[in-house]
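User: Could you go from structure to sequence for me? I need the amino acid at each position, not a summary. Structure tokens:
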């Protein structure tokens, strides 16, 4: 039971209540049942030794005021730390931050999360108030994360409700979440956020959205049309510096493409429990257990990449 799951969500009681009170929930997202014991049961049934917990989307967008968001953020981080403290060999966690608009508050929460709670990294939304993560307003936060050699887990969410995004046939998590991951990844590259903060190790959810599929097209066009002074090769090199989790993406065609695109030691396992039910995640695990992969890639997915990012997991 040595697999490490880097994409596994928690639902603290205060967050569940805020969700039910209901603002900022992307269309198509429903609240699953969750408890620590349910997570442990899922892990035990599926050969998962350690899970890195994170708060589900849309995180702090579920509350209106800054005061409420500060309180909920702190409670969520302390809740995650308490689960880790009760069972440190099975659980670690990514800390939650407020909207990155609140720069000074975010920097304070980063300090508390790393210095007091001993978080293993932070989770960020793909965008905040219509700005992707490479926006200049967010530079102070990237500087702080870079200083701390932080692992940054990027998870998609959408706060707008316009046009086709509200269609019941294409709920937002189904299609638009992967596209949001792609957009923020490309924005991080073109804004030079990746280049300027190389100490940050960034994990993209859901196999990077659509990035591995369209990266060559996008970066050739960007270079050819002079949208950036970066070359195609420079952009691709930075795209391949990301780590990629396999949450809702451990399928044959997706994995074939990702293995060809990503570095062999940059692919991790993620379940997306409890939002991905076991009827969805277990067949993906079965596929990973059956498929033939290069040894380096197989070890990376099972635990190698996670141990590289989180060395203290090897001491649990």
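Assistant: Here is the amino acid at each position, in order:
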């Amino acid at each position: 039971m040595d697999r490490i799951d880097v994409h596994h969500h928690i639902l603290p009681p205060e967050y569940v209540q805020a969700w039910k009170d209901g603002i900022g929930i992307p269309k198509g997202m429903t609240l699953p049942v969750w408890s620590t014991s349910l997570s442990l049961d899922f892990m035990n049934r599926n050969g998962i030794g350690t899970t890195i917990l994170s708060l589900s989307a849309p995180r702090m967008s579920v509350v209106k005021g800054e005061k409420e968001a500060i309180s909920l953020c702190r409670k969520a981080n302390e809740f995650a730390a308490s689960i880790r403290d009760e069972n440190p060999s099975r659980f670690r966690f990514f800390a939650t931050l407020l909207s990155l608009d609140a720069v000074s508050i975010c920097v304070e929460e980063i300090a508390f999360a790393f210095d007091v709670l001993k978080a293993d990294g932070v989770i960020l939304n793909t965008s905040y108030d219509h700005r992707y993560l490479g926006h200049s307003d967010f530079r102070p936060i990237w500087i702080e994360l870079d200083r701390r050699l932080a692992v940054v887990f990027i998870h998609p969410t959408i706060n707008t409700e316009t046009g086709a995004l509200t269609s019941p046939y294409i709920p937002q998590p189904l299609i638009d979440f992967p596209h949001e991951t792609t957009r923020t990844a490309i924005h991080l590259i073109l804004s030079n956020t990746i280049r300027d903060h190389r100490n940050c190790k960034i994990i993209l959810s859901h196999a990077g959205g659509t990035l591995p599929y369209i990266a060559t097209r996008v970066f050739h066009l960007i270079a050819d049309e002079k949208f950036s002074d970066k070359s195609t090769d420079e952009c691709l090199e930075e795209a391949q510096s990301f780590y990629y989790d396999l949450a809702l993406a451990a399928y044959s065609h997706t994995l074939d493409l990702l293995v060809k695109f990503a570095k062999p030691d940059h692919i991790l396992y993620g379940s997306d429990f409890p939002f991905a039910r076991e009827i969805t995640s277990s067949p993906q695990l079965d596929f990973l257990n059956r498929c033939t992969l290069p040894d380096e890639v197989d070890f990376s997915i099972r635990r190698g990449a996670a141990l590289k990012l989180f060395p203290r997991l090897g001491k649990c």
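One structural detail worth keeping in mind: Residues 66-86 form the longest helix (21 residues).
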